[in-house]
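Sample intake sheet
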Amino acid sequence: MLDGAKPNYVKLVEDTVLPRIVLCKQTFPATRIDDPAAAVRDAMAGADCVGKITPGMSIAVTAGSRGIAVFPELLRALIDEIKARGAHPFIVPAMGSHGGATAEGQVKVLEKLGVTEASMDCEIRSSMETVEVGTLENGMVVRIDKHAYGADGIVLFNRIKPHTSFRAPNESGLAKMLSIGLGKQSGAESCHSRGIDNVPIYVDMQARVKLATCKVLFGLGSIENAYDQLAKVVVLDSEGLIEAEQPFLQEAMANMPRLPLGDPEAPVAEGELDVLVVDMIGKEFSGTGMDPNITHRFSSQKMQRQATINIKRLAALELSPQSAGNGNGAARADVVTARLEAAFDREAVYANSLTSTVLMQAKMPMVMPDDRSAIQAVVKTCEAEDLRMCKLIRIPNTLHLGYLYVSEAMLAELEGRPGFEVVGELEEMRFENGRIANPWPKAH
């Protein structure tokens, strides 16, 4: 921009009319646990494999980079339960190449998630050094974090949830934490080296090697409901862990929220949308910043061919501070704002993208100066016959879909939809200093 002059491309969209919107609420079936510590205590008390912990043992406990519901509370409860059995736990950052693929960066990621040595009353041992523990038939080396390998035992902790880039019997969860998370950058890179569609194959193979050669005691997994709340805590023995995790993945998949498109009783959402506006992307909402399971915009061509939702245009407005500059999700948008671009840290994004081999994750879409111009750009180009009556949904992020704004044109088809309620009045999109000002309820 020269001398404050408005760029010509902004002038091309500034007269674009925007649809009226209304605040709506979605209600999903949900079980919620209000006492995470009690849930961990009860799950461990009922699992025979926890008896593998003996007094005096040093135990490595994994902590990843995902924004898991009540993450610090669950991890602290697990640490306390290990201590109560006379062992000496320490935390190992287990997040592959995240945090810029540096030991210091991974500690900072945990800090942003509320996990510090002070809050956990436990040492954090962070290193990118690994130990070779085996080789697959194709020559792929299997490696594990050196601190975890040197401990008397390893306890895996992770959320069990559908992956953002592939479908498999095991997706995001304990097996992936063992193979990729504890593999650090080198392990993540090897699992991804044959392409994203082959990742689950190597997650399975590498996890089995580590279960056979490393001192994994058991895993503690959390499952969330559609509101990003804790729904279940399970303890799985290291023996048979990979198979035991699979039914819980199916449970987690059934719990996921969805956009109000297509038949609400269908196993997956389906339909077409002119415009989706996502207020914020970030690592605490999805490993890829913006969950493709919600948007159906996948990195994998194989997954994209299976998509049942077609979103013609997507605008992403902001990158969460907790993401520490890791703006992978931006690539799946058509338009982003200048403030999102300014928060985009190439060091964090490129390390993640090069390790996963998914280079499109590092791309930057069209950048507009602010929310108003970004939304005008996607509305202008959505190909609706009457832009004022385009089908538009605005969400706070891809994790919290309890409240959303929908455009006037969608009201007729959503009327009477089970679990859907209009809670506001039709209004114009409002902006303050270019930023969208139509508010969200305090709890969304």
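Comment: The chain has a mean pLDDT of 92. The longest helix spans residues 199-213.
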